[in-house]
Amino acid sequence: MPASLNVASVLGELSLEEKASLCLGSDFWHTAPIPRLDIPAVAVSDGPHGLRKQPDEGDHVGISGSLPATCFPTASALGSSFDPELVRRVGEALGAEARAQGVAVVLGPGINIKRSPLCGRNFEYFSEDPLVSGELGAALVDGLQSQGVGASVKHYAVNNQETDRLRVSADVDERTLREIYLPGFEKVVTRGRPWTVMCAYNKVNGIYASENRWLLTELLRDEWGFEGLVVSDWGAVHDRVAALAAGLDLEMPPNLGVSDAEIVAAVRSGELDEAVLDRTAARVLRLVDGAPGGVPDVGEEAGAQAGFDADGHHALARVAATECAVLLKNDGALLPLQPSAGDTIALIGEFARTPRYQGAGSSQVNPTRVDTALDELPGTVPAGVLVEFSPGFGIGTTTADDELAAEAVSLAGRASVVVAFLGLPDAEESEGFDRTSMDLPTNQTALVSRLAAANPNLVVVLANGSAVRLSDWEHHAPAILECWLSGQAAGGATADVLTGAANPSGRLAETLPLRLEDNPSYLNFPGEHGHVRYGEGVFVGYRGYDALRLPVSYPFGHGLSYTDFEYADLTATLTGNIEDDSLAVAVTCTVTNTGQRPGKEVVQLYVNDPESSVSRPPRELKGFAKTATLAPGEGQTVTFRLRSRDLSYWSVRQHRWVLEGGTFRLSVGASSRDLRLTTAIEVSAPPLPVQLDGMATLEEWLAHPGGSALLREVVGLDEHGRPRGILGDEELIRVIGNFPIRTLAAFPGLGIDHATVNYLLGRPQW
Ligand code: BGC
Predict the structure, then answer these.
(1) Whose CA is nearest to atom 12 of ligand 1?
(2) Nearest to 216 by CA among 655, 235, 236
(3) Residue 543 belongs to what H/E stretch?
(4) How do residues 453-487 score in pLDDT, each as one tens digit?
(5) Are 741 and 696 in contact (CB under 8 A)?
(6) Whose CA is nearest to atom 2 of ligand 1?
(7) Residue 239 CB neighbours (<10 A)
(8) What is the structure's pLDDT at 765?
(9) What is the Å distance from ligand 1's center to 362 Cα?
(10) How large a percentage of the chain has pLDDT more than 70?
(11) What is the CA radius of gyration of the chain?
(12) Is residue 506 packed enough to be buried (19+ CB in 10 Å), middle (13-18) or exposed (0-12)?
């Protein structure tokens, strides 16, 4: 490959057919080469939590068989770390493996919002909150691209379910798009500058994402300044020419001999401006030019031995998994385990021996190795402690196995402590379909009560990629550790957390509701007849549970530690002003470790606008920070910086962010429902512009200082000095004050007639 391509001059040398060929891959995983000009093909590969590089031939649907690579914790787990720096390191390692295997672009991260706990692909996504998704997505892109490998942030946009995913239209209002489903992408694009963006399969408000000019060009490029390449999700293109015109560059997998011919014909017939094709061809050339210089597309054998630090990456995967584990409850400080010689720890559940650590579908990694808790735990406990195992249940079935269960209960009865490894089986969560319930299999939940009866010292360790219901069994278990799908080193990481070698610092990036029916999207998921209506609007996840004041099992942001933290000295200092967009709020607080062990806290900053003219969630996360490891007694000052947009809502009237003046409450705490300190700031902002026309209501006229004064002047006073007609009758204003002023003009006796309205509307200021 030439060291640096002169794109403009190469473009000039390409025939129409060659340019069209660049708009498609040459096979499942490669861009098209132009051998005549020494332009090579470059390889792309899944993503997002490990590499899935298929050997040269691959299988024809591109799913099975890939070269060994490190399986890092999935996004469901990484989301719970609330730790951009950690995610960046995972991205770096992923990038190094991609480079070693000759991959130019890794297809990830996936940053779609977890709208419903049922989405089959939730394990590939970070959070129900756009700030967490955007910050962690940007960090992964940053780490990955620091290795000279490109990212492909996906699935753009509003791909929040698997049901009918290639056809369904996600019907979402403009405010909800701007406040919930797009900010994560905006942050990753503007901050992380990914080389590529992958468009989603679905339609957004009736238009395929792959043909959606508003998404692919107006928003992505014109508003957010994206300069990279847009690649289709695999099979997302339906009308190649419309997609190209909308801003879709690379079609994957290539519809060879069809899509390229359509592009050529469209240019020849004048339907497609050749300049559009040139732009796309240039983007592909720039991608090829930026790809790892001279790295060959390695084959299977070379890949198997490819030079990356497999041990180092495995160690990183283990550390990362410990940072992601969320200690949901720990009654009586049952954890960390503190066994002494002669004690027996009962490990129960097939998952202790056959761990579930990743999900199925295009993200499935062929791991370099897999740790199990069964192998790892014995090495982390003192000599003389016995670790015994009993599978308790089968994982390919929901039917209880009486013999296995009885054996597990008997082991529990003679052990000092029981650690039950429960989770969702492979078949329950995967790309391609959604779940239909949040429940764990009944053969597992039935066992929990029996284990608890045999031994009250029961710890449950969970492995699942999306939220499961706990409310029907959790009272049996004094301690629960949620490990998500935590990658190939999950077994060792779990052992580290159980024994206290690591102090859990993961926090929930999604709410765990009491029941599925409480989820805000419940009545509108997964839609029907080709449409899914996002009826809950901006009230997604905790925004909805909090607004409805619903009790939940565990709130967003929750997670315990083996130590305690105290919050103090919350300050908020407002500077600048709205007019020149210099408004900023510096928020600080101090967090001190008041317990006995070193640990990290995730400090969360929530904003509340109690006086908004639109309906807003009671709390919105606008900042988070994971502290350093604090020794007992040690404190750290955490600082957040908010901008005007962090206090604003998206106005569907003005099609822009609007900041309304007034009081804002800022709270810091350890979850959306554990706010430790709150302060308030007063923001002054110009009043919202109101369009005072004939359809503005009487109340709107009266609420406007100028409009009200003019109206009162025109209507005038009666002989007693009181405002005439309706303006002197508060009761009547309450009843018909919401009529447009033009309509009131037709009602006799109100003091407002057509001449009044015409006069008002004729005034130049209106
Ligand atoms: C998935 C993408 C993936 C692609 C390539 C699609 O089915 O939706 O996330 O990157 O396949 O495997």
Answers:
(1) 362
(2) 236
(3) helix 542-547
(4) 999 999 999 999 999 999 999 999 999 999 999 99
(5) yes
(6) 233
(7) 14
(8) 67
(9) 5
(10) 96
(11) 29
(12) buried
CB atoms within 10 A of CB 426: 14
Give the CA distances from residue 513 to residues 142, 313, 554, 556, in Å, rounded to whole numbers and listed in that order: 33, 35, 7, 10
Question: What's residue 764's pLDDT?
Answer: 73
* Peptide bond connecting 764 to the previous residue in cis, omega within 30 degrees of 0: no
Protein residue with its CA nearest to atom 11 in ligand 1: 234
Dump pLDDT digits (tens) for 43-81.
Answer: 999 989 999 998 865 666 676 789 999 999 999 999 999
3-state class of 20 per DSSP?
helix
The answer to whether the beta carbons of residues 29 and 52 sit under 8 Å apart is no
Nearest atom within ligand 1 for CA of residue 362 = 12
Cα-based angle 171, 176, 177 (whole degrees, multiple of 5): 70
Q: What is the DSSP letter of 663?
A: E
Pick from 339, 344, 354: nearest CA to 387: 344
* C-alpha closest to that of 507 among 599, 428, 635: 599
Catalytic-labelled residue, pool 233, 260, 371, 646: 233
Cα(717) to ligand 1 centroid in Å equals: 71
* Percent of the chain that is helix, strand, coil (3-state, to 5): 35, 20, 45
Q: Which residue has the tokens 């994957």?
A: 252
Report the Cα 239 to chain-centroid distance in Å. Answer: 29
Amino acid at 621: L
Name which residue sits closest to atom 8 of ligand 1, judged by CA.
233
Task: Say how many C-beta atoms besides its own lie within 10 A of residue 40's C-beta.
Answer: 19
Sheet containing strand 169-171, edge to edge, reads: 207-208, 203-204, 169-171, 531-533
Separation between Cα atoms, residue 100 and residue 103, nearest integer Å: 8
Q: Separation of 295 CA from ligand 1 center, angstroms?
A: 24
* Ligand 1: residue whose CA is nearest its atom 4: 234
- Tell me whether residue 142 is one of the annotated catalytic residues: no
Ligand 1 nearest atom to the CA of residue 62, by list position: 12
Nearest ligand 1 atom, CA 110: 9
Q: How far is the CA of 301 from the centre of ligand 1 (A)?
A: 25
Separation CA 485–CA 370 (nearest Å): 13
How far is Cα 481 from Cα 422, in angstroms, rounded to an integer? 10
268 CA distance to ligand 1 middle (Å): 33
Q: State the closest ligand 1 atom to the C-alpha of 52, by its place in the atom list counted from 1.
A: 12
169-171/103-107 β-pairing: unpaired
Query: Which residues line the pocket of ligand 1, CB cutoff 6 A?
Result: 46-47, 62, 107, 154, 233-234, 362
CA distance 114 to 436: 15
pLDDT surpasses 60 at 293: no
Q: Which residue's structure tokens are 């559009």?
A: 276
What single letter denotes the amino acid at residue 258? Answer: V
Judge whether 103 and 45 are in contact, CB under 8 Å. yes
At 22 the three-state DSSP class reads helix
Q: Report the separation in Å between the CA atom of 155 and the middle of ligand 1, taken as the mean of its atom positions.
A: 9
8 Å CB contact between 759 and 714: yes
Q: Give the mean pLDDT of the chain.
A: 95
Beta bridge partners of residue 103, listed in sequence order: 43
- State CA 397 to chain mean position distance: 31
- Provide the CB-side half-sphere exposure for 301 (13 A, CA): 0
pLDDT in tens, 161-208: 999 999 999 999 999 999 999 999 999 999 999 999 999 999 999 999
| Cβ–Cβ < 8 Å for 650, 658 | yes
Contact 487, 74 (CB under 8 A): yes
Residue 417 and residue 611: Cα distance in Å, rounded?
52
Q: Which atom of ligand 1 has the smallest separation from the CA of 108?
A: 10
Token pair listed for 18: 């060659």
For 641-693, how does the pLDDT look when each residue is reduced to its tens digit (9 = 90+)?
999 999 999 999 999 999 999 999 999 999 999 999 999 999 999 888 788 99
